[in-house]
Specification:
single chain, 173 residues, Ribosomal Protein L9, domain 2, Ribosomal Protein L9, domain 1, alpha+beta, 3-stranded antiparallel sheet
């Protein structure tokens, strides 16, 4: 089923994209919630005209997103949380805590635009991706530490592993 998205959907696409989805997902979830419309020929024409008229606005939005990404370029966060004696966090750190830490530094971001690819359940260093625009995303490093300082993460030294290729023996009788 071909649909036109009315808003950005993280795992599917961006506003005004024409995407293919399973019929049940489109008919039972996206269309009733107002997130998409069926991509009929007339809807495609309207979407193309709308996109043509918004081209100049698109450039301004892209420049604004790029400026925000440039402002966030040097930002790194430290998130203090309750930690057990073994270094595991009570709960986990997610996009809400990262958005709050960014707000404390003066950057208001929508937590729905933040993506943390790994489960943050231990003290350490991690990275989050902030998707500001269809074409602009920035990686934000953050460290998770104990709020009372009772646990310090062990320093993990990076080891270099050399792979040595040995010639395979082809002739076996």
């Amino acid at each position: 089923m071909e649909i036109i998205l009315k808003e950005d959907i993280l795992s599917l696409g961006f506003k005004n994209d024409i995407v293919n989805v399973k019929a049940g997902y489109g008919r039972n979830f996206l269309i009733p919630k107002g997130m998409a419309v069926i991509a009929s020929p007339s809807a495609k024409k309207m979407q193309a005209e709308d996109t043509r008229q918004r081209a100049h606005k698109f450039a301004k939005i892209l420049n604004d997103a790029q400026a925000e990404a440039d402002a966030l370029a040097g930002v790194s966060l430290v998130i203090a949380t309750k930690v057990s004696s073994t270094g595991t966090i009570f709960g986990s750190v997610g996009s809400i805590q990262i958005a709050e830490a960014l707000a404390a530094k003066g950057f208001e971001v929508d937590r729905k635009k933040l993506v943390v690819k790994e489960n943050v359940k231990e003290v350490g260093n991690y990275k989050a991706i902030l998707r500001l625009h269809k074409e602009v995303s920035i990686e934000i490093p953050f460290a998770v530490v104990s709020e009372d300082g009772s646990y310090v993460a062990p320093v993990v030294e990076e080891t270099v592993v050399e792979v040595v290729e040995t010639p395979a023996e082809d002739a076996q009788a």
